Amino acid sequence: MTSAPTPWTLADGRDLLFFSLPGHSSHPVPDRRPLPDQSVAQSELRFDRTTGQWVIIAASRQDRTYKPPPDQCPLCPGPSGTTSEIPAADYDVAVFENRFASLSGAGDAAFRLPPTGGDAFLSAPSHGRCEVICFSSDHTGSFAQLDFAQARLVVEAWVHRTAALTAMPGIAQVFCFENRGEEIGVTLTHPHGQIYGYPYLTPRTERMLREAHAHRERRGTNLFTDIVEQEVAAGSRIVARDDMFTAFVPFAARWPVEVHIYPNRFVRSLAELDPVERDGFTRMYLTILQRLDRLYSLPLPYMAAVHQYTDDETQREGCFHVEVISTRRSATKLKYLASSESAMEAFINDVAPESAAAALRRL
């Protein structure tokens, strides 16, 4: 059983948490950096009346740290308290509030988005929470290279932070994710991910839940569990499967590389998995990431998205799953989201899902 994280406070008041393996402990030191005050909101929400979607305007993120040399990485341990976001000589897993947050202010007060029925330009404070999760103190590693215990600790940190952010007033959705590789746009190469607490359901989540509720009304069953059963029956897109989890390339994959991992029983979040199932998820997730890194001669750039839901009536049909996607369509070519995808949201995939699944099975 993982012990409670060790809390710490950074120089500008942001929260830092240390998650430690059994028998390990971190020993943070005071953060001595002269950081600017973080109490003033740095971004806002603006409503797009043409799509019915909220857009986050976060101009201050233009100043975020951009591809520093390895000896100046802000995610490596900083035992002096003057060089790093993590002022400690070592750590296992660390989570802290993002210094260059898109959303902030959650936890300070109650929050409700304004009604969207009017005709005026509509904006709101950027209520929410953005956190960074460092998977390891090793600057040169990756999630796929973590040993089981370390990866399992990351899963527990995801569970802890999901529960904490969900409990904050005004948070409607918690999203854990990883961007890996410069081709994806990553500016810090240290193995890490992020956790967002949104004040609204994201557009894709809304669409997926809308389809799931419609499926329930038509069929009386859950959309996601039906899809898993149908993929297993078809077989041609299955990548890996065991007693607890199934990984497959979806029938209508949008991306050249796209693998979804689902539990074999319906749960809405990582927190609803029992300890044995969390072990199983960790093994399956590592297996998929390791296969993806063997797909080409170089490690695969990817985005990993952890989809979780609450038992709120609007989210009740949502099923926990992870999607790992990549824009690499061959060993030497990238898939760019050009006009059809970016302007019209009409995806064109250059790789047949069945071929992608077969390649990953062979690995």
Automatic annotation (TrEMBL):
Pathway: Carbohydrate metabolism; galactose metabolism. Zn(2+) binds at residues 73, 76, 139, 190. One of its GO terms (molecular function) is UDP-glucose:hexose-1-phosphate uridylyltransferase activity. Its cofactor is Zn(2+). It catalyses: alpha-D-galactose 1-phosphate + UDP-alpha-D-glucose = alpha-D-glucose 1-phosphate + UDP-alpha-D-galactose. Binds 1 zinc ion per subunit. The active site is at residue 192. The keyword Transferase applies. Its EC number is 2.7.7.12. Keywords: Carbohydrate metabolism, Galactose metabolism, Metal-binding, Nucleotidyltransferase, Transferase, Zinc. NCBIfam families: galT_1. This is Galactose-1-phosphate uridylyltransferase. It comes from Mycolicibacterium aurum (Mycobacterium aurum).
